[in-house]
Structures are given as C-alpha cells and as structure tokens.
Amino acid sequence: MCIFFCSFTLQIFTFKHLQFLSFLLCLQFFVGGNWKCNGTKDSISKLVSDLNSAKLEADVDVVVAPPFVYLDQVKNSLTDRIEISAQNSWIGKGGAFTGEISVEQLKDTGCNWVILGHSERRHVIGEDDQFIGKKAAYALSQGLKVIACIGELLQEREAGKTFDVCFQQMKAFADAVPSWDDVVVAYEPVWAIGTGKVATPQQAQEVHIAVRDWLKKNVSAEVASKTRIIYGGSVNGSNCSELAKQEDIDGFLVGGASLKVYFYCWA
Ligand SMILES: O=C[C@H](O)COP(=O)(O)O
C-alpha cells in the first residue's frame, strides 16, 4: 500500500516535468490538506499515524491544516517532513480579541503556514477583501507563509464574473502584501467546495492561467512565474491526475478527501 500523496504526486511529476520542459522554472508541487472544523483527538491521532508511516515524494511540499485546538497535538506527533498550517489568524498582535488566535501564538505552536481568505471565512463568517489583506500582510511580516484563497460563487460564474471576482480578490492581496515570496495562491471556486462538483481541468486551467497573467501584468513577470497557483474544490483520488496535467495547476488544497483514509492510500 502506498499513500495517495506519494503515488499521485509521482504521476503528477511525470506529467509536470514533461509539460514544464519549456519552462525555465519548474515549481515544486504543493499539496495542502485542510481539515477544516473536523476531527477528534482520536481520529486525528490515526490520521497523523497514517501520514507518519507514508513515504512521501521528495519533491512535493505537503502541508496539513488541523483545527486550532489540535495544532499542538499534531505538531508533537507528526513527522517534520510535513509542515503545519493554521486555518486562520488575527490581523495583528494578540491582546483583547476574544476567540481569536494570533500569528505569534501560531508560530509558538510550530505552525509555519496560514490559510487566509478561504471562502468559508469570506461567505460564512463575512470577512472582506481588506480584512483578509491585512491578515496576510501581518502574517507575512511575522514570518508565517500564506495560502491566499480566491474564488467565485456559482452565481458569479454564471453571470460571467469569474475573472472579475478573482482579480479583485488578487488585488486586495497584492495591495496588502510587500512580497509574494511566501505566498501560494489557492483558486477554489466556491461552487466546487464540498459539493463533489469539481471544476473540469479546462475550467481550472483557464482561471489559473488568467491569475498568472494578472500577476504578470499587475505585480511582475518574476512573481507570476514563481508563484504557485493551486486548485481546491472536491479534489479526490479519482480526479487529481487529470487536474494535475494542467500546465498552471501547481498543487491542490484538499478538504473532505484529506480526512479520509483512502485519500492517503492509493493502491
Ligand atoms: O480548503 C479546501 C477546499 O475548501 C476544498 O474542500 P473540498 O475538497 O472538501 O471540496
């Protein structure tokens, strides 16, 4: 038995190396598991144990984002080969902000990434572009790397506004962050998240290349070529290979499937 990350990334790297021959720079593939508000001490202990016994492909960055309350448990039991991300962070230094978690506290628990701008934060909690931009700027200023999420709602896609929405969200990040060195962009169409309705490889590639082009025009050609743009939204063991063949898909941010044993075990 080999784990999903290993075998599927092996396939991915075959594809990607072939496809990227013409590129001067080959971006390291990135696989993020966003565990969202799921798990118990016991189920997380089992997941960590599965990950620890897995042989991960060397050329792939693997990051998991447990719920806050289990960060310490995961940090203390997970192999150092896998990095740990938070699912959110406060906009500045800690203090009298009930219920919030500061970047400093996240770093203290051993986190080196944070997911910001996730659609569940935008559309369920109500975080806006500027608020998310401030969070990104503060996290980066304190040495935390950022998975910056963007993506359109179904009605926005149907109204032909996908690019407008994604570019507006990109602009908010670009206006706030001083550097893109420690940023991975995650394109997550909201209609594909947790719905089982994955974007087709063509739909995803179309947005990824547009976002890269946006970075080229609005930030720099260097940032456009160096920034990883990953896809999220109902990714699983059956659809990941086709998505990964797309030239501008540099990895995945996976929710539901990252909690299931079969996701890690791909025979
Ligand atoms: O952060 C992950 C995304 O929201 C995707 O979630 P999903 O794989 O459950 O659709």
From TrEMBL:
Listed A to Z, the keywords are: Isomerase
Pathway(s) this gene product operates in, as recorded in its UniProt entry? Carbohydrate biosynthesis
* Single Gene Ontology MF annotation: triose-phosphate isomerase activity
* Gene3D superfamilies for this protein: Aldolase class I
User: GO annotations under biological process?
Assistant: gluconeogenesis; glyceraldehyde-3-phosphate biosynthetic process; glycerol catabolic process; glycolytic process
* GO cellular component labels: cytosol
InterPro entries in the record, alphabetically? Aldolase_TIM, TIM_sf, TrioseP_Isoase_bac/euk, Triosephosphate_isomerase, Triosephosphate_isomerase_AS
Extract the PROSITE patterns matched here.
TIM_1, TIM_2
| UniProt record similarity statement | Belongs to the triosephosphate isomerase family.
Assembly, per entry:
Homodimer.
| Xref: HAMAP family | TIM_B
UniProt-recorded name of the protein:
Triosephosphate isomerase
